[in-house]
Design goal:
Blueprint (H helix, E strand, L loop, with lengths): L10 E22 L2 E21 L5 E6 L5 E11 L2 H6 L7 H15 L11 E6 L9 E6 L7 H7 L1 H14 L24 H13 L5
Antiparallel strand pairs: 1-2, 2-3, 2-4, 4-6, 5-6
The protein binds zinc ion (2 copies).
One zinc ion binds next to helix 2.
């Protein structure tokens, strides 16, 4: 139940949330060199933890209010890929750059998926983790935002080489300095688009794609 009251405050609000993904079942796994590209069933646990109040015109953050809301879970289908420490070393991605590289690659790949699957970026979600408890490796997940899955992640899995190549090219070709809404920023990010490292993301995707089999 939502209680709504009309008001005209001088600020807007944005929710901050945490999302965790666990692998329930790996349906298919394909080696891409040392990387793995996987498709399967995942459980997504989503919790809104706070909201930010922002000034209407400038977007300046006025404050953050904590919320105590229950987590919600979604059982769905996802596509995910991993990289190894050796690949990160070869791609010159330092440990402190890794979260921003994974997060930027995740955002850009979600932004690119509507060109390959008939979906909107709001139909899919993503999570990137420097050390995932199920894969024990740095991992990026993209999942269907509907219970039971909707076929978008599966389509992503089957066109992964083209999808992720287009993702890398979109980031590399973007003329912004440190990331913008056309490349690595996402309007639906629960972390306020932080951290993001677009240059490390390009190197990360190049390392991943180097092992991709020809389609
Ligand atoms: Zn950009
Ligand atoms: Zn994000």
């Amino acid at each position: 139940m939502a209680l709504v009251e009309e008001a005209d405050p001088p600020y807007s609000t944005t929710a901050r949330d945490t999302t965790a993904v666990s692998v329930l079942d790996t349906t298919t796994e394909v080696p891409w060199g040392d990387s793995r590209l996987c498709f399967g069933s995942v459980e997504v646990t989503h919790q809104v933890v706070s909201f930010l109040r922002r000034k209407l015109i400038t977007g300046e953050v006025l404050g953050e209010s904590r919320l105590d809301l229950p987590p919600r879970t979604l059982r769905t289908r996802g596509v995910w890929w991993t990289v190894t420490e050796d690949q990160l070393d070869a791609a010159r991605i330092a440990p402190e750059q890794l979260p921003g590289a994974l997060h930027a690659a995740e955002h850009a790949s979600i932004g690119m998926l509507p060109l390959f699957a008939t979906c909107d970026r709001w139909d899919i979600g993503g999570v990137s983790v420097p050390l995932h408890p199920d894969t024990l490796l740095p991992t990026v997940f993209v999942y269907d935002g509907h219970h039971g899955g909707a076929g978008f992640a599966e389509r992503a899995f089957h066109t992964a080489r083209r999808w992720l190549t287009a993702t890398r090219e979109a980031i590399a070709a973007c003329e912004c300095e440190t990331g913008c809404p056309s490349c690595v920023q996402s309007p639906k990010c629960g972390n306020g688009n932080d951290p993001l490292d677009k240059y490390a993301a390009v190197r990360l995707l190049s390392a991943l794609l180097a092992g991709a089999p020809a389609e």
